[in-house]
Write a structure and sequence with these properties.
mainly beta, 6-stranded mixed β-sheet, about 45% strand, globular
Length: about 210
């Protein structure tokens, strides 16, 4: 089982952000990425804000994730509050916008949280509306590498049928270096067929540490 999915930090850092989950009282603790742009000139920013969850029993730290997409025509920004999590204070929250699809209709990225119950999630936002799809990458890649083998994952594009293409690389010669098909409907990543074509993201900056 993959102990922890490490996310590549060797790419451009402008669409990457991270912070610890904290409660600053009256002042909102938050961070956001710089904007990533789509083929039609639309722009998107990924944000996270944190605060105490005000639970009488636990008082855990709540993290709220939001995408803000500004249309190319100068219309009002569209906000999508697509994920909230509760967990340990001080856990690291990392986020990266991978980029828009070539047709500008989808926006992909990765969220990672540290702490006692670490998570690594891929999100798939559709500009036409509907819920943001969330994919648990730790579950999808649980048997990609042997125990103790650190892996690096990055989003590199999509297929013509709409599947998300990811690339995994091991830190040392202990696991496969492959390209994978990931789908919200699937429970396990599938190897990309040999010779399959990939539609690269419009602005490809694919992962976070």
């Amino acid at each position: 089982m993959l102990p922890l999915i490490l996310l590549a930090a060797s790419l451009l850092l402008s669409q990457q952000a991270s912070m610890e989950c904290v409660d600053t009282g009256a002042t909102v603790a938050a961070t956001e990425t710089q904007a990533v742009r789509g083929p039609d000139g639309a722009a998107a920013v990924l944000k996270v804000s944190t605060a105490d969850d005000h639970s009488k029993n636990s008082h855990e730290c709540n993290a709220d994730y939001k995408l803000v997409v500004t249309p190319a025509n100068g219309g009002a920004p569209v906000e999508a509050d697509f994920l909230a999590s509760d967990g340990d204070y001080g856990r690291t929250l990392s986020l990266r916008l991978a980029g828009f699809s070539q047709d500008g209709k989808r926006l992909l990225g990765i969220l990672a949280e540290g702490g006692k119950y670490s998570t690594t999630l891929l999100f798939d936002y559709h500009a036409g509306g509907g819920p943001v799809q969330i994919v648990d990458l730790k579950m999808q890649f649980a048997r990609v590498a042997p125990p103790g083998c650190g892996q690096t994952l990055g989003i590199i594009g999509t297929t013509a049928s709409g599947a998300i293409v990811m690339e995994s690389n091991s830190e040392k010669a202990c696991g496969p270096n492959r390209r994978w098909l990931v789908s919200a409907a699937g429970s396990k990543a599938q190897p990309l067929p040999q010779g399959a074509s990939i539609l690269s993201l419009y602005e490809s900056n694919s992962a976070v540490r």
